[in-house]
Amino acid sequence: MGLVKLRFKSVSEIVGNDDVGLLVLVTEDERRQLTIVCDKSMVYQFGLRTANVPVKNKLLPEVLWQIVCRNVQTPFKVVINDLVDGQYKTLLYNTDILQAYPVRASDGVLLAYIAQMPVYIEEQLLLRQSVPHNEQSTNVSIPVNVLSDEMLQKALDKAISEENYEQASHLLEEQRRRERKEHKS
Asked: What is the torsional sign of CA 26, 32, 34, 40?
């Protein structure tokens, strides 16, 4: 399994949806980008760090990381290694004792940002889920398989109302794929 290193690029809110945000990570050469859907709280947490708010060193993640660093001299990394039911499977990986701790993808990226630890993704997953990165683009592309069921339905309704039948067909196929998978379980 080959791993590709990513770095945090930006966080943004989805226009028209106050509850959801997007984390954008890019490859080191900035040719590919991966978008992770996150909640409003995570958008706020990243906003505190990217705005360099003075109080950030007293926030719980920073304080806990300082404690970990003082007591454990072990290098860690974050590894995104799968996508299951629209959620990236992510591990906080202790590289000395080879122990992995499951973590929500957005939390893993936040911790990596705070601790300046590397973030990696399984190469085949990156190839499936990423899109070309364009620095000048104001739009962010996300694969439909990472949308929640609710977001998928809203996107489908919007595509139909705008008479974008090609997009509606694509979204409907994703919805049906999920339903088939659910019935098999």
From this structure: positive
Give me the DSSP letters along 88-143.
EEEEEEETTTTEEEEEEHHHHHHHHHHHT--EEEEHHHHHHH-EE--TT-------
pTM over 0.70: yes
CA distance 90 to 112: 12
pLDDT above 70: residue 58: yes
Sheet of 17-27, strand order: 99-104, 87-94, 76-84, 119-122, 3-14, 17-27, 32-39, 131-132
pLDDT in tens, 133-177: 888 766 666 666 767 777 778 778 877 887 877 777 777 888 887
Contacts of residue 88, Cβ cutoff 8 Å, sequence gap at least 6: 36, 80, 82, 105, 146
pLDDT-based confidence at residue 42 (cuts at 50, 70, 90):
very high
**171: which 2 tokens?**
């979204």
Residue 76: closest CA among 116, 41, 20? 116
Burial state string for 135-168 with b = 16 or more CB within 10 A and e = fewer than 16: eeeeeeebebebbeeebbeebbeebeeeeeeebb
